[in-house]
Write a structure and sequence with these properties.
By secondary structure, the protein is mainly alpha-helical. It contains 8 helices and 5 strands; from the N terminus they run αβααββααααββα. Strands 1-3-2 form a 3-stranded antiparallel sheet. A two-stranded antiparallel sheet has the order 4-5.
């Protein structure tokens, strides 16, 4: 994959490993640098709001000021975040592309994976519209494959392709900046969590419907008693 963006001259070896909270902070800084450049670099309060927003985030988080501040200190030590001097309020900006040593397009894909969790190449192209306009899905796949085949002397692979989920045609990709991941997992964390909660939601709905039916039956029986007629209920058939 040939890129028109120059590759940063510095490439740390090995690649720094970040925590999930640090990945959220870093990804948020990368996102806001591209989507709201007029208010970038970010203040601490703006960064916290961006980390905890309910859209375009997987998983959702409720980070405190102390957690974000600690993550910023760690990222500054790793050379991935810088403080902006000047003004009355301290602001923060990322140094991801140079700190990790990747092309701009690769940095965009890694930022999206840190913010939104595992995604297919098609999802990444769609979600990157406000960050960078890829020509086609093949272009996205090319950069993902480069990140997957990244040489050990450059820090090793930064993404991995996950197993194909049931009923899906495309495989999802996950980043490795937080360390190794289970390649047998399929789908995003929210999808897997939803799969586990469907049964519980269905059972609760059935229980609620049964209670409503019982209440309606009691009401019918009272009305029939007042009218002097016999209430008759037909039990459901075994084949229903």
């Amino acid at each position: 994959m040939t890129s028109t963006s120059p590759l940063p001259t510095t490439s740390p070896t090995p690649t720094p490993t970040v925590s999930p909270i640090e990945a959220r902070v870093l990804g948020t800084l990368m996102e806001k640098a591209r989507t709201v450049p007029d208010s970038y670099p970010l203040t601490l309060n703006s960064l916290i709001l961006g980390c905890n927003q309910k859209s375009s985030r997987e998983p959702l988080m409720e980070l405190t000021e102390a957690q974000v501040a600690t993550a910023l200190d760690q990222l500054k030590s790793a050379g991935l975040v810088r403080e902006s001097s000047g003004g009355r309020t301290t602001r923060y900006e990322h140094n991801f592309q140079r700190g990790i040593g990747v092309y701009e397009q690769s940095a965009v894909l890694l930022g999206l994976l840190m913010l939104r969790g595992p995604q297919t190449a098609g999802e990444l192209r769609l979600n990157s519209e406000r960050w960078y306009k890829f020509a086609d899905i093949s272009s996205v796949e090319g950069f993902l494959e480069e990140l997957q085949d990244r040489a050990a002397e450059k820090g090793g692979p930064l993404v991995v392709k996950l197993a194909r989920g049931p009923g899906t045609r495309e495989q999802r990709w996950a980043h490795l900046l937080c360390g190794p991941v289970d390649v047998t997992q399929s789908g995003s964390p929210s999808t897997r969590a939803n799969d586990g909660s469907v049964a519980g939601n269905t059972a609760a709905r059935i229980e609620r419907l049964e209670a409503e039916v019982a209440q309606l039956r009691n009401t019918v029986q009272k009305l029939c008693a007042e009218l002097g007629v016999e209430a008759s209920f037909t039990p459901p058939s075994a084949d229903a």
